[in-house]
């Protein structure tokens, strides 16, 4: 089975722009979660989607949004980019809801640099 | 509150055992995980333990859970240079209508030949 894939792997944007990141979960997995990893804050939960519905959202501003499609693929969008948004964005998929005992498998991440 | 703590660095000699420790605060966590991250890569699931277990062994990896003290450890036997990476402990917690993982800061394991 193919693992979690994320595109693109690297992105360079400037302040004020917006960006869309894509995640394809493992086949058969219905939950997709997004995490932000920075040297200062570590790994922080952004949101979780299950069956095209956002189930949870972490403590991030409204500039961070996402969606999930009927084939479970997910996108996250960051608008009005700030320098502090530079990070590795990781997507994870699981068969059922995270926290319900279903193990999350991570993709390789998208490295976003904001100049 | 939710918090997971790990020591930041560990250095061992090749062939020795490594023990990475973690403490967590959410007593309702059902699963606890260990992930490995190599430079420039995502997180690789190493192993996990259900909260009603004390120990789990998987080849060179042994996980010990002390639920009373909320302490989790990962032992790597016969550590190799290829084990050099950052190791994250995570607790799975229910949150709103789903769940999330709460991660520790990561322990950087350095294996010297």
How would you sum up this structure, described in words?
The complex is a heterodimer of chains A (115) and B (113). Chain A has 115 residues and is mostly beta strands. Helices cover 0% and strands 52% of the residues of chain A. Chain A has no helices and 11 strands. In chain A, strands 2, 4, 5, 6, 9, 10 and 11 form a 7-stranded mixed beta sheet that branches. In chain A, strand 4 and strand 5 form a beta hairpin. The radius of gyration of chain A is 13 Å and the shape is globular. The model of chain A has no long low-confidence stretch (mean pLDDT 94). Chain B is mostly beta strands. Chain B is 0% helix and 61% strand. Chain B has strands spanning 4-6, 9-13, 18-24, 31-37, 43-50, 55-58, 61-66, 71-76, 85-95, 98-103, 107-112. In chain B, a hairpin with a 2-residue loop joins strand 9 and strand 10 (98-103). The interface between A and B is medium-sized, with 28 and 28 residues.
Quick overview:
The complex is a heterodimer of chains A (115) and B (113). With 115 residues, chain A is mainly beta.
Q: What attributes does this structure have?
A:
heterodimer; A: 115 residues; mainly beta; 4-stranded antiparallel sheet; 0% helix; B: 113 residues; 11 strands
What structural class results from the helix and strand content of chain B? mainly beta
Uncertain regions of chain A: pLDDT < 50 for 5+ in a row? none
Q: Percent of residues of chain B in beta strands?
A: over 45%
Count of discrete alpha- or pi-helical segments spanning 4 or more residues of chain A? 0
- Report helical residue fraction of chain A: under 10%
Number of helices of chain B: 0
Which sequence of SSEs, written as H and E, runs from N to C of chain B?
A: EEEEEEEEEEE
What is the end-to-end distance of chain A? Answer: 37 Å
Mean pLDDT of chain B: 91
Report the sheet with the most strands of chain A, covering strand number, pairing sense and barrel closure: 7 strands, mixed
Residues in helices of chain B, as a percent range:
under 10%
Q: What's the Cα radius of gyration of chain B? A: 14 Å
Question: From N to C, what is the helix and strand string of chain A?
Answer: EEEEEEEEEEE
Query: What is the global morphology of chain A?
Result: globular
Oligomer: heterodimer
End-to-end separation of chain B in angstroms reads: 41 Å
Structural class of chain A: mainly beta
Low-confidence region ranges of chain B: none
Largest interface: A-B, 28 and 28 residues
Give the beta-strand count of chain B: 11
């Amino acid at each position: 089975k193919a693992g979690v894939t994320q595109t693109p792997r690297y992105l360079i944007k400037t302040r004020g722009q917006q960006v869309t990141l894509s995640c394809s979960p493992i086949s058969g997995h219905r939950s997709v979660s997004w995490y932000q990893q920075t040297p200062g804050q570590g790994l922080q939960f952004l949101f979780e989607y299950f069956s095209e519905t956002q189930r949870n959202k972490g403590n991030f501003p409204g500039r961070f949004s996402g969606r999930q499609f009927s084939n479970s693929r997910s996108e996250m969008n960051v608008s009005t980019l700030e320098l502090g948004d530079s990070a590795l964005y990781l997507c994870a998929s699981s068969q059922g809801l995270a926290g319900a005992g279903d193990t999350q498998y991570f993709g390789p991440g998208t490295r976003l640099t904001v100049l | 509150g939710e918090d997971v703590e790990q020591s930041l660095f560990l250095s061992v000699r090749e062939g020795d055992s490594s023990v990475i420790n973690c403490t967590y605060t959410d007593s309702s966590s059902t699963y606890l995980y260990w992930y490995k991250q190599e430079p420039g890569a995502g997180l690789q699931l190493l192993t996990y333990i259900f909260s009603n277990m004390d120990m789990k062994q998987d080849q060179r990896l042994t996980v010990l859970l002390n639920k009373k003290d909320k302490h989790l450890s990962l032992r790597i036997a016969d550590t190799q240079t290829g084990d050099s990476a950052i190791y994250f402990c995570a607790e799975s917690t229910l949150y709103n209508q789903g769940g999330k993982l709460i991660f520790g800061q990561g322990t950087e394991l350095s294996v010297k030949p």
